[in-house]
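README: folding subset

This subset contains proteins for which both the sequence and a predicted structure token string are available. Records are stored as plain text. Below is the entry for TetR/AcrR family transcriptional regulator (237 residues), shown exactly as it appears on disk.
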Amino acid sequence: MPVPAKKAAPLRAAKPARVPRSLQKGQQTRAAILEAALGLASHMGLEGLSIGALADVTGMSKSGVFAHFGSREELQIAVVTEYHAKFEEEVFFIAIREARGLPRLRAMFERWVRRVSVEVDSGCIYISGAVEFDDRPGPVRDALVGMVKAWHAALHKAIVLSVQEGHLQPDADVEQIVFELHGLILSLHHDARFMRIPGALTRAGVGFDRTIQFYATPAGLEIEQRRKASKTSAVKR
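--- output ---
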């Protein structure tokens, strides 16, 4: 999930282009429909989405919804794309503000866990979508797979940077670490949402700590110890 390169700021601020009111209203309506669609998909899955169901929820006509999304498939893909954009905002773009290496990798995982904790009562479209479309080839499945691969690529890069910064061992199995971290999230979602087992969030954190400790260098362990000491000090204040 590469970060878009920043463009150089223009020497003189350009006048903002005037957006026709009809276009602006259309964009606002589409955004409102997408928000409602996200809510439906979170509880009912992508397969629960339909033009008719969305029309009922939004109070619009079927033709009105259809004007923004020409088909159910297009609607489902738009929801996947919107979900991914929100995931980036809440997890990725906040986490990459941290220093390269373990601080950034930990922030990515902890923000991920925080999002899952919010989704316990609604649902994760990535996970429910994987169940719905795991054996159903087509554009919706391709969109889901593409988004998850983008996140895995971001995790992969963060782990590689941790190796380059000397925080993880040079021979650390990057793909294995990605697998283990994703496995922790899947277990967390299962135990917290389906089984309603108390303490699942804590167990996910312990799992991350153990994974890092297994692959960490002395420098990496020192970073982790300083983090724990700082956290303990903050709690005592």
